[in-house]
Every structure is written in structure tokens, then in C-alpha cells.
Amino acid sequence: MSEQNLNNLCLAYLYASEVAGRPAGQPAVTEGPVITISRAAGARGTQIATELVKRLARDQTLPQRRPWTLFDQNLIEHVITEHHLPEHTADFFPEDKTDDIRSVIAEVLGLHPGTHTTLMKMAETIRRLAKAGNVVIVGRGGNFLTADIPLSLHVRLVGAESCRVRHFARRSGLDHAAAAAEVARIDRARKRFIKSRFKKDIDDPLGYDLVLNTDEFDDGQAVAVILAAIHRKPG
């Protein structure tokens, strides 16, 4: 599927969902199912999430209120669309960012709506999608934002640093030293993001239903473990 078609599918999902389309004043229905994936850099989060959505689309045992859809990097574009934010706001969603000074300066100068505003909009969109159900949400503290949804599964993907660096180097085309530096930077940024926004430790296993060491499983095996776990969750 092309990137444009994927974006169109996700946008259609937003406006076709029961939550997005409910009458004003009608209370939201908390239902799911939703799977959130937190990932250490290089732990194959995007690959596993992509394969997971394909498998979920064929699964007839979970509620299928709408097509299963992956919200990963494309989530930012949909937050901007849904909340009518300036397009350049995308540069200031901070999960993997370390240049907070640049963001603060831009906020003071009025170049974007502000970190607090963008994070609130992100949280609103994640909650909306999760309540509508049939979504896999990668990153952005999704496990903390959707912890109250009964039919939800929260997964953390981890692995030895050496394995993650090798994978990151293959995917990015960087040499080993550059890949190691980037993996370390992303891990620090994500850890700081979760600590500052949710007062939680991203590595605390109690924040997840399932912590999976991707060194021990290929993508298909990892997906099978996640599917087995969501089927055992009370809905």
C-alpha cells in the first residue's frame, strides 16, 4: 500500500469512527480493542506493528467494528488535520526530539502552538482512536493514555543494545558507530518524554501487559505472541 493510500485510510478511519461521528453531548463509549506498542530504538517496532495489523485484519475472534489500522508516524499528520494545527507543528512533536530549546524559542516567537497544546491534542486524538477501537498505536505514551480501556493490550518491545544497533544500522544505512549513537539518542529522548509527560519510567515492566525481547523472536513469532495475549484479555 502506498504512503498516500495509507494516509487516506487513516483519515477515513478518523471520520468514519463511531466516536468521531457521535452527536454532540452523547457520552463516549469506551470499548476498543486497541493495542499499544512501546519500543526501544531498533527493536523492530514498526515492522512488528505492520505485520500485526495484517494478521488482525484476518482475525475473526476479536470485535471488527472497522478496519484494523496502524497509527505510527502518520499519527502526527492526523493530529494536525483533526485539530487544524499549522503543518509545521509536526516538527515539534517531541517523543524522539532532544532539541527542546528550539521548540521553546519557536513557541515564544509564535511559530507553533506550543508543546503543551500539541501534546494535549495528541492525547485527545489517541484517546479518540482507542475508544473507537481496532487500532494499533505505536509510541507517544499510548499505554498510559488508554490504560482504562478494558479491551486493550499494552506491549513493550525490547532487546539487547548490540542487536538493536545492528538492526538500526541495516534499516538506516548508517555505519555501526553512527547507528549506536542514534539508538542511544532516541532511547534517551523517549525515556525523557515519558518521564516528563507521564511521570513514569518507560522501562518499568508494570506499565505494560507484555514485555517482549525481540532478540528471541522473528517478526511473525512476535506477532503470534501478541495475538495470543490480546485473545486472553477480558473485554
Describe this structure in words.
The chain has 235 residues and is α/β, with parallel strands linked by helices. It has one domain (30-231): Rossmann fold (3-Layer(aba) Sandwich). It contains nine helices and five strands; from the N terminus they run αβαβαααβαβααβα. The protein has a five-stranded parallel beta sheet, sandwiched between helices. The longest helix is centred in the C-terminal third of the chain and has 23 residues, at 176-198. The protein is globular and about 45 Å long.
Topology:
Elements lengths: L2 H14 L17 E6 L5 H13 L11 E3 L2 H10 L16 H9 L6 H18 L2 E4 L3 H4 L6 E7 L2 H12 L3 H23 L11 E4 L5 H13 L4
Parallel strand pairs: 1-3, 1-4, 2-3, 4-5
Helix pairs in contact: 2-9, 3-5, 7-8
Tally of discrete structural domains: 1
The strand line-up of the biggest sheet is: 2-3-1-4-5
Helix content: 40-55%
CATH class: Alpha Beta
Mean pLDDT reading: 76
Q: Can you write the helix and strand succession as a string?
A: HEHEHHHEHEHHEH
In terms of per-residue confidence, which ranges show pLDDT below 50 for 5 or more consecutive residues?
Answer: 1-21, 82-92, 97-114
